[in-house]
Amino acid sequence: MNPSDEIHKRRTFAIISHPDAGKTTITEKLLLYGNQIRMAGTVKGKKSGLHATSDWMEMEKERGISVTTSVMQFPYADATVNLLDTPGHADFSEDTYRTLTAVDSALMVIDAAKGVEERTVKLMEVCRLRDTPILTFINKLDRDVRDPIEVLDEIEDVLKIECAPVTWPIGMGKSFKGVYNLLRDTTVLYKTGQGHTIQDVREVKGLNNPELDEAVGADYAQELRDTLELVQGASHDFDLERFRAGQLTPVFFGTALGNFGVDHMLDGLVQWAPAPLPRDGGERQVQPDEAKMTGFVFKIQANMDPRHRDRIAFLRICSGRYHKGIKLKQCRTGKDLRLGDALTFLAGERDNVEEAFAGDIIGLHNHGTIQIGDTFTEGEDLRFTGIPHFAPELFQRVVLNDPLKSKQLHKGLTQLAEEGATQVFFPLRNNDVVLGAVGTLQFDVVAARLKGEYGVDCRYEPVSVSTARWVEADSDRELENFERKAYDHLARDGAGHLTYLAPTRVNLQLARERHPEIRFRETREI
Ligand code: GDP
């Protein structure tokens, strides 16, 4: 098939939601529609003991949270859908922010009982930076939830995005009857207890069809007609252009657990969400259907699969086609790399791929040479922009319980730091090892992973560091001079970059004033 046909079939998206809104459950159902699992597993959670197929680390199973970002590809209708899973917990937000730079659209899942929650607000802000088109699924209609009109109002007010309802619910909780699709003028009837399967649904065409009164009850049918009149006056009609510009979101109602209404959303996604979009390659805009392959790394993960014990760099293809044996240039280092064994990810199962296209994510084996933000091309010098790397805000000293494991500790921390969620610092003046993170949970994750993956047993002690800044200067001489003067506060990070570890904010402020020639960066340029 013509590569450009393949590219136009791609829909690459991520789910944004507050924890517990139903992201994992909906992911399961999407994979069910993608025919990737015969029966969607009951959602992870301590109670059920069953885990979602998209969760693969021990840690997340124990805690019932998603730590990793997994990538899942599945066919649906005429499209090839790439779903990039993101960790829901706020301590892993960096990972999520970077993943959102690798998608072309996003699905926002809202708990209909809770409305717009804090994480969702934050994630929407990130999507705004790139005007990512957003679809909305309002979940848990099988429970007693808030008035749907009120929830839409809240989305419009708080998230400043216009809502265009595509489906509308009939009843809720025990009397949830189904949804009416405004664009198809069809009511689809809900049956309980069918959540694990793709249901045979009964459909009633036409809002004024007497069959509807018989199917849902005359009262509910009349209420639906009245509400819709109100809704259509007060809300927006779906508009493809405004959706593509990130100004309007098509809204779908349903229950992920009951697997109802999810398919309407998925139909909307493949029909309206954009195929891979042009990207800013620094030097120029890169069009997805250019013949030559380009891409950037947005995530690195160590030891993804305990059976393989390796590090994988996740690369989003921005243009062209990957094929086995392709020679690519890593633009940061200028080095060439022949790729014989890139991976794709089917719900946690990894496979060698023969070919992949713009919009797809491939996994590259990384032996420590690839960094987050790296651009790869077939030779041209480009640099895809906009992948953030944040300075950590929390610090602890890592202390080994077995002093002989120092080498493994350094290796483990450096490799885990490549993933971008933590940073390791080696102060110049002593042999301390300082770990920095954006969220406290990261420290537990690192300790558990050091033990499980590197056989290193360690504990943490407080350290007098309140913030870190990567330092730069125009000349090497200025930097060397600074290194001498600020020696006691300087460290190298896992990648060897000079970093200033400030014991207090005031100290940082003073250092800034004393050394105007030095740039103190909060994000590392990548
Ligand atoms: P996540 O944290 O966003 O991934 O949320 P989960 O998918 O793990 O769902 C959180 C909880 O809500 C779980 O107990 C789910 O079983 C439950 N849940 C998800 N979707 C629905 C739904 O449509 N109806 C009901 N009643 N519960 C749901």
From TrEMBL:
<keyword id="KW-0648">Protein biosynthesis</keyword>
<dbReference type="InterPro" id="IPR053905">
    <property type="entry name" value="EF-G-like_DII"/>
</dbReference>
<dbReference type="Pfam" id="PF16658">
    <property type="entry name" value="RF3_C"/>
</dbReference>
<feature type="binding site">
    <location>
        <begin position="139"/>
        <end position="142"/>
    </location>
    <ligand>
        <name>GTP</name>
    </ligand>
</feature>
<dbReference type="InterPro" id="IPR027417">
    <property type="entry name" value="P-loop_NTPase"/>
</dbReference>
<dbReference type="InterPro" id="IPR032090">
    <property type="entry name" value="RF3_C"/>
</dbReference>
<comment type="function">
    <text>Increases the formation of ribosomal termination complexes and stimulates activities of RF-1 and RF-2. It binds guanine nucleotides and has strong preference for UGA stop codons. It may interact directly with the ribosome. The stimulation of RF-1 and RF-2 is significantly reduced by GTP and GDP, but not by GMP.</text>
</comment>
<dbReference type="InterPro" id="IPR000795">
    <property type="entry name" value="T_Tr_GTP-bd_dom"/>
</dbReference>
<dbReference type="Pfam" id="PF22042">
    <property type="entry name" value="EF-G_D2"/>
</dbReference>
<dbReference type="InterPro" id="IPR009000">
    <property type="entry name" value="Transl_B-barrel_sf"/>
</dbReference>
<dbReference type="InterPro" id="IPR005225">
    <property type="entry name" value="Small_GTP-bd"/>
</dbReference>
<feature type="binding site">
    <location>
        <begin position="17"/>
        <end position="24"/>
    </location>
    <ligand>
        <name>GTP</name>
    </ligand>
</feature>
<feature type="binding site">
    <location>
        <begin position="85"/>
        <end position="89"/>
    </location>
    <ligand>
        <name>GTP</name>
    </ligand>
</feature>
<feature type="domain" description="Tr-type G">
    <location>
        <begin position="8"/>
        <end position="277"/>
    </location>
</feature>
<keyword id="KW-0963">Cytoplasm</keyword>
<protein>
    <recommendedName>
        <fullName>Peptide chain release factor 3</fullName>
    </recommendedName>
</protein>
<dbReference type="InterPro" id="IPR031157">
    <property type="entry name" value="G_TR_CS"/>
</dbReference>
<dbReference type="InterPro" id="IPR035647">
    <property type="entry name" value="EFG_III/V"/>
</dbReference>
<comment type="similarity">
    <text>Belongs to the TRAFAC class translation factor GTPase superfamily. Classic translation factor GTPase family. PrfC subfamily.</text>
</comment>
<dbReference type="InterPro" id="IPR038467">
    <property type="entry name" value="RF3_dom_3_sf"/>
</dbReference>
<keyword id="KW-0547">Nucleotide-binding</keyword>
<dbReference type="InterPro" id="IPR004548">
    <property type="entry name" value="PrfC"/>
</dbReference>
<keyword id="KW-0342">GTP-binding</keyword>
<dbReference type="InterPro" id="IPR041732">
    <property type="entry name" value="RF3_GTP-bd"/>
</dbReference>
<dbReference type="Pfam" id="PF00009">
    <property type="entry name" value="GTP_EFTU"/>
</dbReference>
